[in-house]
Write a structure and sequence with these properties.
With about 675 residues, the protein is mainly beta. Among the domains are: about 10-200, Jelly Rolls (Sandwich), CATH 2.60.120; about 205-285, Immunoglobulin-like (Sandwich), CATH 2.60.40; about 575-675, Immunoglobulins (Immunoglobulin-like). It is about 15% helix and about 35% strand. The chain is built from 8 helices and 42 strands. The strands form 11 sheets. Strands 30-29-28-27-26-33-32-31 form an 8-stranded parallel β-sheet. Strands 4-3-6-12-9-10 form a 6-stranded antiparallel β-sheet, with no helix packed on it. The protein has a 5-stranded antiparallel β-sheet with strand order 1-22-21-18-19, with no helix packed on it.
């Protein structure tokens, strides 16, 4: 490689070509055709050895193999996975990448349905790692960039009635790889769905919904903007309200607000004469007040995890059913927040965040961590030449996910030093969406952000931050502002080996100091790969440069079954605390931010020598957020007991939720009866 030669197509810094403007992901009644399924595939070790003419209809691919799409080709017997935590798996010489760069050629012959409507059509890729050159019927459409971001191409003049050929040449490495140095497996491919989407003339090119909630009055607000060829209207059936989707503000009386604890969603239909879209709206307002991040007027506490999109069998191509099961398991273990480390997830996962109820930090697909390990090379985040490429990643994140109430914070990426391009990104986000806060952990001066964020700060430092006595930064003005911002541990409690540790002490500090608003455990799941009846990590595939078993650091095992650590997390994160009170009573405290205890039942059971001898239900009055009560412990009649006596009290769901059945245990307390409890 040489910085003197002209970059090749996949090495151009502003990589995307022919891609339509970013827009929201939403469901409409426009025709669509899912192109996921079995494609033809061929892997070449380099571009120079890749076949020519793969985009032509007459090209003979009979010697190729079948490959499912979405997929990561290395998990289907082609090439080998690579795991590195932060070091780039190739020499750092931006924007150049090695000549030995695997090329995955994908071809699909598909038939356009006979009843396909006339009018504009796009092909949408929800994710191609690391970039893809796209042709339809021999015509080049353009180039995708941003591995976990959507790319749409106009195909109206190229799409044919009957049989069509779609060809995608995927490059393992590209200039975009310098912006995607996340702590994860490097698994190239067409990793998310591919769809053909009809865009009716006069239809909805984009929809932006901006709901709000006034907690003092209980009144909601709604602003709907539609980019369309004809006038658009909106309708909220549950409240029998309608309006024009022209950006005007509309006040909605007596709405049910959305929160992670009570994720109430309204169906909203946005319509033109040519197309109708259905969105699910949550009324909530995010604000920075009194040094705290508040939603609907109340301080929230993140009981969170960092979630990579990874499956031991499918890599980055995580099946939707598996993602749904993951999030349900999180909720059953009292996790209420997710940081999408370190890129936006599959767009359908955002719907689940809304439905199940999660506070979400939605992170742009940007990390340049490996530049910390080299010298003499400017980090792209501080190089004006890369400003457009950096900005593109946050623009497409915000535009895709802007309609989701679960997203309350936008993140500018992860571990990418801090540079002028973060300022460019932050400025755009603030102008486009002032209704949410901005996060980026490496901005320790908080020059560009609204949250003071740290990784792995020890308890002592967290307490200093809570007291606002932390060590000052070099700029007095910025330091004064930083001290008035909420504090979040975007990573803490590293769950590798015997971790995570100290969670209860962290939780005590989060509850004691309003400024300290919780954090996100690293990380949700072990990132191992299933192979040969077991699981493999870095170095198990013959790679010379790797980070070993550092990817095996999750709260759940590679098959997504809970580790013992997850049981501790559930206990520490429990929104209800049950413990010994005064004079032998039971003390019950509600640690929900918004909810009362009205939908919980409190059950008790007495054990003598490990054998249950009595059980019943406790009458606990309804407690509001932050309230506590003391109640008499159940009395046990009969003879003196011979064994060790324990009273177990559980708070269980009184009715089903989308993520658990009625009777699911939310919290529990266990008290030794020798401590003064009635027995």
């Amino acid at each position: 490689m040489s910085a003197r030669r002209r970059p090749r197509l996949h090495e151009e810094i502003d990589l995307a070509k022919g891609v339509l403007p970013a827009r929201a992901w939403f469901r409409t009644d426009a025709a669509s055709l899912d192109l996921s399924g079995v494609w033809r595939f061929r892997l070449s070790p380099s571009l120079e050895r890749a076949p020519e003419g793969v985009e032509r209809l007459g090209f003979d691919d009979s010697s190729w193999c079948d490959l499912p799409v979405p997929s990561c080709w290395q998990l289907h017997g082609h090439g080998s996975p690579i795991y590195t935590s932060c070091a780039y798996p190739f020499p750092v010489d931006p924007p150049y990448v090695p000549d030995q760069n695997e090329i995955g050629d994908h071809r699909l012959v598909f038939d356009l349905p006979d009843n396909w409507p006339e009018g504009p059509v796009v092909i949408r890729f929800d994710g191609v790692d690391s970039c893809g050159q796209v042709w339809l019927n021999g015509e080049e459409l353009g180039v995708t960039s941003g591995s976990r971001l959507p790319s749409e191409f106009e195909v109206s003049g190229v799409l044919r009635a009957g049989r069509n050929l779609l060809a995608v040449r995927v490059y393992q490495w590209s200039s975009g790889s310098y912006l995607e140095d996340q702590d994860a497996w490097r698994l190239p491919g067409v990793i998310r769905r591919v769809q053909l989407v009809h865009r009716p003339k006069g239809g909805l090119d984009d929809v932006a919904v901006w709901p709000g909630f006034e907690h003092e009055s209980g009144r909601g607000s709604l602003r709907v903007e539609a980019r369309s060829g004809q006038p658009a209207t909106w309708h909220l059936p549950a409240l029998d309200l309608s309006g024009r989707a022209d950006g005007g503000n509309f006040f909605v009386p007596d709405v049910e607000p959305w929160s992670a604890e009570r994720p109430f969603l309204y169906d909203l239909r946005v319509t033109t004469p040519a197309e109708s879209a259905l969105l699910r709206v949550g009324f909530r307002t995010v604000a920075l007040l009194g040094g705290c991040l508040r939603v609907n007027g109340r301080r929230v506490l993140f009981r969170g995890v960092n979630r990579h999109e990874h499956d031991a069998n499918f890599g980055r191509a995580v099946p939707f059913r598996a993602a749904r099961d993951e999030l349900a398991l999180m909720k059953r273990h009292n996790i209420n927040a997710v940081r999408t480390s370190h890129y936006p997830p599959d767009p359908r996962v955002l719907d689940l965040f809304d439905e199940f109820g999660f506070w979400v930090i939605d992170e742009a697909d940007l990390e340049t961590h490996g530049f910390d390990l080299v010298s003499g090379v400017t980090n792209p985040t501080d190089d004006p030449v890369w400003a457009g490429a950096c900005l593109d990643r946050v623009v497409r994140t915000v535009e895709r996910d802007k309609n989701h109430p679960s997203v309350i914070v936008w993140s500018l990426g992860n571990e990418s030093s801090v540079g002028r391009n973060h300022g460019v990104m932050s400025e755009w986000v603030r102008q486009r969406d002032p209704s949410r806060l901005v996060h980026y952990e490496r901005d320790r001066d908080c020059r560009y952000v609204d949250i003071y964020s740290r990784m792995y700060a020890p308890h002592e430092e967290v307490e200093m931050v809570g007291k606002r006595t932390e060590v000052p930064t070099s700029d007095p003005g910025l330091d004064a502002r930083r001290r008035m911002l909420p504090f979040v541990l975007c990573e803490y409690g590293h769950a590798m080996g015997n971790g995570p540790g100290g969670l209860a002490d962290y939780q005590r500090l989060f509850e004691k100091y309003p400024r300290c608003q919780g954090g996100f455990i690293w990380e949700w799941a072990d990132q191992a790969i299933a192979r040969g009846g077991g699981y493999r990590y870095g170095g198990d595939f013959g790679e010379e440069l790797h980070s070993g078993n550092f990817c095996v650091d999750g709260l759940v095992f590679p098959d997504k079954t809970p580790s013992p650590a997850l049981a501790e997390v559930k206990k520490v994160f429990a929104p209800v605390r049950i413990e010994l009170g005064l004079a032998g009573t039971l003390r019950v405290t509600n640690h929900y931010d918004f909810s009362t205890t009205s939908k919980l039942r409190f059950l008790w059971a007495m054990e003598d020598g490990g054998i249950e001898v009595a059980a019943g239900e406790l009458a606990v009055k309804e407690l509001g957020p932050g309230e506590a009560t003391e109640i008499p412990a159940p009395r046990m009649p009969g003879r003196p007991w011979d064994g060790e006596r324990w009273l177990n009290v559980s708070a269980v769901l009184g009715e089903p939720t989308p993520w658990a059945d009625a009777g699911h245990e939310v919290a529990w307390g266990q008290i030794c009866c020798t401590e003064g409890v009635n027995a």
